[in-house]
Write a structure and sequence with these properties.
Blueprint (H helix, E strand, L loop, with lengths): L1 E8 L2 E8 L4 H10 L4 H8 L3 H8 L7 H10 L6 H4 L18 E6 L2 E5 L9 E7 L4 E6 L4 E8 L1 E6 L2 E6 L3 E5 L3 E4 L6 E8 L4
Antiparallel strand pairs: 1-2, 3-4, 4-5, 5-12, 6-11, 7-10, 7-12, 8-9, 8-11
Length: 200
């Protein structure tokens, strides 16, 4: 299936066909970030490697049952795979409108909204909302470089053995270091969080 985008050439407005990839690129990015091979994911979904490869390349459409199975594997809401299709074809891969952001679950009082157009690329950007009292109690270490900017609220961020009290307007960066966080305030803390390479 293809969509059309308006382009201007020599003073005339023309229509240019644009492909729509569906959930394929995101599924590929999710699979790779979780360290799964095509064969391993296909086995967990109960499908063939060839079928999964076609889905990732946008040559086949998964059923609702397939998407539900994959959402469970990656701990995502089923709706994650559909919000992408709400955007006009010309904007897909480039622009994310405020009302079409996709949410990647919520754990321990943290909700992450994907600001990147998809999960491909060399980095991903999130709007992370930490509810009052939310806490990541056990340190995590990821093979990533991460940076963030606190839009509102307060956030305690531990990087290695150091604890930093972040206020609105503060920013941070760390790479391949143990980290954890806590919202000590009475209002949500909102952070623009960048991760490279993608972890979802």
């Amino acid at each position: 299936m293809s969509a059309q985008a308006l382009t201007k050439s020599e003073g005339a407005t023309t229509l240019k066909a644009m492909p729509t990839a569906g959930p394929g690129p995101d599924l590929r990015a999710l699979r790779r970030s979780h360290g799964l091979t095509l064969a391993e994911l296909a086995d967990r979904v109960g499908r063939s490697v060839g079928w999964l490869s076609q889905v990732e390349r946008g040559q086949s459409d998964p059923s609702i049952r397939d998407l539900r199975a994959m959402a469970a594997i990656f701990d995502l809401p089923l709706g994650f795979f559909f919000r992408h299709d709400e955007a006009p074809a010309v904007e897909r891969g480039h622009v994310v409108r405020r009302d079409t952001r996709r949410t990647l679950g919520g754990r321990g009082g943290l909700t992450e909204e994907l600001l990147s157009p998809d999960l491909g690329g060399s980095f991903e950007v999130f709007r992370s909302i930490f509810e009052p009292g939310a806490e990541l109690a056990e340190p995590e270490i990821r093979p990533t470089e991460e940076a963030g900017y606190l839009i509102s609220g307060r956030l305690d961020l531990w990087i290695g053995d150091s604890c930093f009290r972040l206020e609105a307007g503060d920013s941070f960066r760390f790479e391949r270091q143990a980290f954890r966080w806590r919202n000590p305030g009475a209002e949500p803390a909102v952070v623009i969080w960048v991760i490279a390479p993608p972890v979802y």
